[in-house]
Write a structure and sequence with these properties.
mainly alpha, 44% helix, two-stranded antiparallel ribbon, 11 helices, elongated
Length: 281
């Protein structure tokens, strides 16, 4: 998991978006009310346990705001906003670190918080599996609340561990949250709780399988002799450790691929030729 930076230069002022694109449906008083609610949202860091749903938008206007979210769909007035918010995350889901995020999540669900249905800071890129895991969960306490992609800052330190297993000749990896390098106890607890609610192993399964196959092909092409003798464990281990450092330079410290590569480097059977079970058949 990692933080995102809200694209203020591309997305602009949230109140202005509402006024310029959707404002003909709202009175000036309602616009001012939404502006105050938006400021309160940021002040309370998007925590449901500190924000009560507004009664001012509990009726027909709330229904209209919920339906206004459709303006972010393809060929609609706010499609550009969806594009900008998805672009911030790039190819990595901020919740699990894998799987291209192709959906927008309402951090506070629009079913309960109609006033934030089209509030850009309440919308963040997420992958399908994580969005399914989160659904409309908000957390009754700070400790159990999902981290806010823009308003909570995840430190760039290692907080994951990985263990290797072998099943039917193939290697599997299981990730676990350690949090030892996260110095803020409350943040560490929230990260741990969120990790327990998303299925990171399932989200990353396809990427892990692909990476294992890619590594096996590289070892065969770059480290083995022409006769096909498995590469020496020392060469494989050194290759994996170098790759882990390169991944962290490219992404960030503690990125899941780097954790995976180091776990494989510590697996004697994998380095001793077990990697060949992942060569394409």
């Amino acid at each position: 998991m990692h933080s995102l930076t809200y694209p203020i230069e591309k997305a602009g002022c949230p109140v202005a978006i509402l006024r310029d694109t959707l404002g003909d449906k709202l009175s000036q008083a309602e616009m001012r009310k939404l502006g105050r609610l938006y400021l309160l949202y940021v002040k309370k860091r998007g925590l449901a346990c500190r924000l009560k749903a507004s009664t001012a938008f509990a009726g027909a206007q709330g229904d209209w705001l919920r339906s206004a979210y459709k303006a972010t769909y393809k060929d609609k007035p706010l499609e550009w906003l969806r594009t900008a918010l998805l672009a911030v995350a790039g190819n990595r889901c901020p919740s699990c670190g894998g799987t291209r995020p192709v959906e927008l999540d309402h951090h506070l669900p629009k079913s309960e918080y109609a006033e934030y249905s089209v509030f850009p800071i309440n919308l963040a890129a997420i992958c399908g599996p994580c969005n399914k895991s989160k659904l409309a969960k908000v957390g009754a306490t700070v400790e159990t609340s999902f981290l806010h992609p823009y308003l909570d800052r995840i430190p760039e330190v290692a907080f994951l561990d990985a263990a290797t297993h072998r099943s039917n000749g193939s290697y599997l990896l299981r990730f676990a949250f350690t949090g030892g390098a996260v110095t803020d106890p409350l943040l560490a607890l929230r990260m741990k709780n969120q990790f327990g609610q998303i299925d990171m192993d399932a989200s990353l399964a396809a990427e892990i399988t692909e990476l294992l196959s890619e590594l096996a092909c590289r070892f065969e092409d770059e480290l083995e002799d022409p006769a096909g003798t498995p590469a020496s464990p020392e060469l494989v281990r050194a290759y994996l450790e170098r790759s882990a450092k390169r991944v962290e330079r490219q992404h960030r410290v503690g990125f899941w691929q780097a954790i995976m590569l180091r776990a494989l480097a510590n697996d004697a059977s994998f380095c001793g030729g077990g990697y060949r079970s992942h060569l394409p058949r």
